[in-house]
Give the backbone structure.
Amino acid sequence: MADSRVGQGARAQRWTARLAIAAAAAAVIALAVVAGLRGVALLAMGAAGTAVTAAAVWWALTRRGLVRAGAVALAAAAPVVVLVLQIAAGLLGELLACLALAALAVGAGWAALAGDVVPTTPHAHLVPPPEHPVLVMNPRSGGGKVERFGLREKAEALGANVVLLDPDRRTDVAALARKAVADGADLLGVAGGDGTQALVAGVAAEHGIPFLVIPAGTRNHFAMDLGLDRDDPAASLDALTDGVELHVDLGFIGDRVFVNNASFGAYAALVQSDAYRDDKVHTALQLLPDILTHRLGPRLAVRAAGITIDRPQAVLVSNNAYRLGDRAGLGRRDRLDSGLLGLVSVTVDSAAQAADLLRGERAPGLTTVTTRGVVVDADAREVQVGIDGEALTVPTPVRCTIRPGALRVRVPRVRPGVPRARPRLNWRRLGGLALPARRPRPDSARL
């Protein structure tokens, strides 16, 4: 029975791979043979329109006044002009057919290669429930999720000691967590944003006790990559009675912990502005022209994995690498236990380089590596950094490191989990899958 199911799965994978290759070939034929020279014109117009749009966006971000207004108009008009020209040339039908065939080829290719993606969930350890859990809750996080979901009452009903932060007073959360450990806490947890999560996680890792994440913040990226239910923060409390333990990595800038990432350059400069909290769009439009053209802020230099990156506008150092090839999974990390930092750096100094970023990971201005350490230096004594969304200023050079398996995270045994990454389209691999399966020759044939 099991062999039969395996055989059926292999046949389905083979035919799905054949469908992907057939659809891709049909798209090429429709473009090159049916459309002829018009197909070349269709491709040229599409590429030119996309490049013009990307360049116009760069001008809109780096200029002010009438130039910015003109760039915005150009970015909006370029795709419309391309579409009108294609309709006027009678290419709309070919375009729609090619797009439909390409979408079919990509979808079938992903389906055929889905089995090649290996799940990367950290090993879950069975553990007894904590005896003296202490949970720190921020009533303002996530627009008041603590009260809306009744987190305090539900946690106390499960035997947890809840410390409710005073929203009108600045609290040293790390000191509060250390006091809880000194008083006998055998588990620390946070219902709040990722910045607060990181501070208390650092204390938990320092004392070797487990940490509980309750996604009561706004974005809850750490909870997302742990596979927790972000729509129901109270579900995380199940870990107090029916939980398992994962060992995950922690990122560090000096002795400051980050659970998600540390950003340098444009974003770090924006979040330092008090006006950014009140009016993000207007503040960004005012500051970005000077930040992106190096008229404001220090010039950065990044060293990692044997390479040096000069004057990048944006640098992101993450606790494990983010997905980049899968647009549906942008902002997610497949692993939290690889023992490696992720580094993404963007360097753009002209509209042409901005358009070149459309090449994705092959663009010269985009650098992506994984490494055990990153050094961010600058032509200034201090540099601005956003650590898990918290704005800080730190002395240079800034050394980012990672400690593998430093944090014991308690999660519910039953939870949504992390969606499997979408496979990269490998046409050579699809070609191998599409070929007929080789059957072993009978003994008589060998003689």
About this structure: The CA atoms of residues 73 and 341 lie 40 Å apart. The mean pLDDT is 86. The chain is about 40% helix and 25% strand. The first helix runs from residue 2 to 34.
